[in-house]
Amino acid sequence: MAEVDVLIVGSGFGGAVMASRIGQHVRDALPGRTVMVLDKGNDNSGRFDPMSLGGPLNEQGNRFRHTLDPNYLQDIGEVFTDRDGTFRAGRPSMNVVAGKGFGGGSLLYDAVSLRNPASSFELTRDGRRLWPTGYTRASLNPHYDVCDAELKVKQMAWTDAEVPHWQLCTKRDFVFAEGCRRIGATAMPLKLADDKDTNEGWWNQGQRFEGRQDLTKNYLSDAFDAGVLFHSGCEVTDIVPTDRGYGLTVVDRRGGTPKQDFIEARILILGAGCIATTGLLLNALPAFAGERGLDPNLDGPPIVLGRRLSANGDYGAMGMVGPDYELDVEGHKGKPMSSFTPSFWKEHRFILIPFYAAPMYPALGQFTTLLPPEDPHALGRASTGPKRQSDGRPVPSWGRGYKERLSLFSRRMMTMGCLAVDDSEGAVELGPDGRTEVRWRETSAQTEARWSAAVDAMRRIYEALGGELFLDGYRFDGAVNTSHPLGGAPMSDDADHGIVDPNGEAFRNRNLFVVDGSVIPAALGVNPSLTIAAVAEVMAQRLISGDGTEPLTSRLA
């Protein structure tokens, strides 16, 4: 059995920040104490764990590849879904894409680094403010500043002689901006975690080069330099309270043959990602009974843990730009995201972002299709199907017509995504086999109205460019797809409405912390990575300094 002082499970935007800050503090103020990071994925950076599985290092010194090879994609990401199976056509479902390996979600993200709008901090439910007291845009701004510096966040630009080429928007963004202009909206360049990028694109399959700032290049690198221990290929399956702290059953796959270990930690920090962390806590419920219960409902099924999962209003669609429009989209070139429109935020609480999606995904009907809808103006879950041919049969996703449509992918097709303030209608649950699953059983009228307004805006943009909006997955089979899940183990001012307090510590379990997207209590409506990191900065600072909580030094005395 191994014993460590501070154990961090997961290395995404929450876990990486905590590893960096705590690791540096322990090195400087608590020599001899051990800090360890576990991740069930591999070390594709090639730096942190020499025992990590994976292929040979490339010429850049890492294992990242620019490929859609399914085996590689399964190595850097995973999909959580319901018991009916991933992307099973015709069944309303929820599908969540999450990162896996050192760097967590930063391996798959497009580096968009937007600050949470002030209004999103003020969301309420049943008259109660969802964010804990003290969390506001103004209070978080200094921590956003720290994250911007650490992640090398840069403002993109349309054209500027003094801005380097890698900091400019793409042709896709100019097409999107013109479509916005024609319907009375305004497009703006994004802020990205990017520095001197080679601008070759393909960011969301792992980045071989140094430009795009995944977490292995900043926070995790700082943690490693501070002496934090990194173990890849180690999946936590069980957590139990012990006299010393917390015991974890871990399956170590680094040797090729899985080996089960037991690790005991005085301080346990869960940062495995929104879905995985919530699943671990759900699985641990029986071991945390009575006064140490993890959920406000101490004697029955959870009423907060796993409930109110947000998809952050994610909604993806694809469409065709008309043949007479003068510019090619060339969506595959440059950065996958570099502009957005905030024009609909004030009235509808959503933004739109054009982005690059590899043709494999819409061709397989995942989040969108390449088919025209039967009713172009249909709105709502499972509201329409593919357009019908003269013989009454649906337009097929095969044959000459489909092949010709697909041949126009790089020149005429453009993908858009909506991020909105949803009502957190999802749930994280354990399936019959104990596997972590996600559900989206129904959509509230408020969320439906926002998504409908977003779909209508996207349709009008495509049509303004002489084209059309294709049939998306939500209007076809009702599937909700997200790569920005939030909630499941939310923070709160009190133990009746949350799993952890504003410092990230479990209400009835000293030295058990949660620091990833699961603590975010409501949808943001913008890409969440920067906010998750900023909240983790707050929690790390409070733990180290003892601001409003017991300091780390005392906890490890």
Description of the structure:
This protein is of the alpha/beta class and 557 residues long. The protein has 2 domains: 2-55 and 72-80 and 98-155 and 206-306 and 486-555, FAD/NAD(P)-binding domain (3-Layer(bba) Sandwich), CATH 3.50.50; 165-202 and 310-482, 2-Layer Sandwich (Glucose Oxidase, domain 3). Helix content is 24%, strand content 18%. It has helices at 13-29, 70-76, 137-151, 171-182, 219-225, 274-284, 345-348, 360-363, 399-407, 409-412, 445-464, 473-477, 529-545, 552-555, and strands spanning 2-9, 35-38, 77-80, 94-99, 124-125, 128-129, 153-155, 188-189, 191-193, 229-231, 234-241, 246-252, 259-270, 315-320, 339-340, 350-355, 413-420, 427-430, 436-439, 468-469, 480-482, 512-514. Strands 1, 2, 10, 11, 12, 13 and 22 form a 7-stranded mixed β-sheet that branches. A 4-stranded antiparallel β-sheet has the order 16-17-14-20. A 3-stranded mixed β-sheet has the order 3-4-21. Helix 1 runs parallel beside helix 13 (529-545). The longest helix has 20 residues, at 445-464. The chain starts with a strand and ends with a helix. The mean pLDDT is 94.
Number of helices: 14
CATH C-level class of the largest domain? Alpha Beta
Segments where pLDDT lies below 50 for 5+ residues?
Answer: none
Quickly give the structural class: alpha/beta
Mean pLDDT rating: 94
CATH 2nd-level architecture of the largest domain: 3-Layer(bba) Sandwich
Cα shape: globular
**What is the count of distinct domains?**
2
Number of strands: 22
Major sheet, described briefly? 7 strands, mixed
Alpha-carbon Rg, integer: 23 Å
Intertermini distance: 22 Å
